[in-house]
Design goal:
The chain has 389 residues and is α/β, with parallel strands linked by helices. It has 14 helices and twelve strands. The chain folds into two domains: 140 residues, Aspartate Aminotransferase, domain 1 (Alpha-Beta Complex), CATH 3.90.1150; 240 residues, Aspartate Aminotransferase, domain 2 (3-Layer(aba) Sandwich), CATH 3.40.640.10. The chain binds pyridoxal-5'-phosphate.
């Protein structure tokens, strides 16, 4: 019998791994399924992305290996976007690196900086790759419970001193998946200051920085003094530009940190398809305009869904950012059990809090990935499940 690695055994089950098969079974049975599980909106990608890809793909040079340098125009477009959007200047070649979606960069960065015996602070609930990347790097995740007590902020001062001594890395993600929390500037300042003082790196995961509402503008961590010394920031085209399947993002930060991650990546990938990078460059050139259109539609969906949930007996906060609504369940109702009943009895796919870590029990997440009529229908069906438990 094959004995698998201890690292494999230490990986928790991946929350969304089983969902596609369950969905397929239900659709085959004729169920009218509403999927508000994965953060994967049904909007078409930007027209400019499709046009640029169609054109780029005609060029045989685009079919060659991208290698880690990738398409210079994509690097330059990402650097220009950071300059316009946050007023930050980064060297497009030494301080910025294309990724096959931000997920792989987050996981591979851990391999570049963590050793066995090191600790990485992982928000709970949080995107599963923080935990998984840490485990795959042979290091130890320390789960910090994000709760309403701290407005879902990860407060480094609360980590026990003996853990801090062994901590090499902390994952921060604001606007936050799944809680939709946003980080005030003074929070970011005290966190950067703490990390500088304790020689801790920050992986600042920022894929939702453009999906914000009601005048809120999400910052880059690099707007905070000192952050350039300790942070790497991850950006993604997946959510802001509805390009989840294109697999494109980038990391930005101090050159040594970027070079370390690139060294790991040399051994596991050979870069994102150049034609996709050409499309990414075109999209980033037009970013503000494109984002405005998507955000208006996400806002409309949010403003339909939160009251619809309330009418069905769910008391969720109105998110100021992200495409998620983080919904509390009544005391004692397990999120896994609720999710199963929602799928099997109501044909609605949501993600249970438990999929984001043990600290998220008692919540479920709705993603604003379908139109307002379907969202209202989903809320009504979920209300029936709630009434029946
Ligand atoms: C917090 C967070 N980070 C990173 C990602 C990964 O995005 P991608 O790999 O598509 O760029 C996701 C996707 O759901 C996410 O929610």
């Amino acid at each position: 019998m094959t004995e698998f690695s201890k690292r494999l055994a230490a990986l928790p089950g991946y929350p969304m791994a089983e969902l596609p098969a369950i969905k397929r079974r239900l659709i085959q049975q004729g169920v009218d399924l509403i999927d508000v599980g994965a953060g994967d909106a049904d909007f078409p990608p930007p027209r400019v992305a499709v046009a640029a890809l169609t054109q780029a793909i005609q060029d045989p040079a685009m079919s060659r290996y991208p290698f880690q340098i990738g398409l210079p125009a994509f690097r330059e477009a990402a650097a220009a976007y950071l300059k316009r959007r946050f007023g930050l200047t980064f060297d497009a070649f030494a301080e910025l690196h294309p990724l096959l979606g931000s997920k792989e960069g987050i996981a591979h960065f851990a391999a570049a900086v963590l050793d066995p015996g090191d600790v990485a602070i992982v928000p709970d609930p949080g995107y599963a790759v923080y935990h998984g990347g840490t485990v795959l790097a042979g290091a130890e995740p320390y789960l910090y419970a994000l709760t309403a007590r701290t407005q879902f902020l990860l407060e480094m001062e609360e980590i026990p001193k003996d853990v801090v001594r062994r901590t090499k890395l902390v994952y921060l993600n604001y606007p936050n998946n799944p809680t939709a929390a946003v980080a005030p500037r003074d929070y970011l300042e005290r966190t950067v200051e703490f990390c500088e003082r304790h020689d801790i790196l920050i992986a600042y995961d920022n894929p939702y920085c453009e999906i914000t509402f009601d005048g809120y503008v999400a910052p880059s961590i690099f707007e905070i003094p000192g952050a350039r010394e300790v942070a790497v920031e991850f950006h993604s085209l997946s959510k802001s530009f509805c390009m989840t399947g294109w697999r494109l993002g980038w990391a930005v930060g101090k050159r040594e940190l970027i070079a370390a991650m690139a060294k790991v990546k040399n051994y596991v990938d050979t870069g994102a398809f150049l034609a996709v990078q050409a499309a990414g460059a075109a999209v980033l050139g037009d970013a503000e305009e494109i984002i405005r259109g998507y955000v208006a539609q996400f806002r409309e969906r949010r403003d339909a869904m939160v009251p619809a949930l309330a009418a069905s007996g769910f008391d969720a906060e109105v998110p100021r950012a992200t495409l998620y609504v983080w919904v509390p369940l009544p005391e004692g109702l397990g999120s896994g059990a609720f999710q199963r009943r929602a799928i099997e009895e109501a044909g609605v796919v949501v993600l249970p809090g438990s999929a984001f870590g043990p600290g998220a029990e008692g919540f479920f997440r709705v993603a604003l990935t379908v139109g307002t009529a379907r969202l209202r229908e989903a809320a009504e069906r979920l209300g029936k499940v709630l009434a029946a438990v």
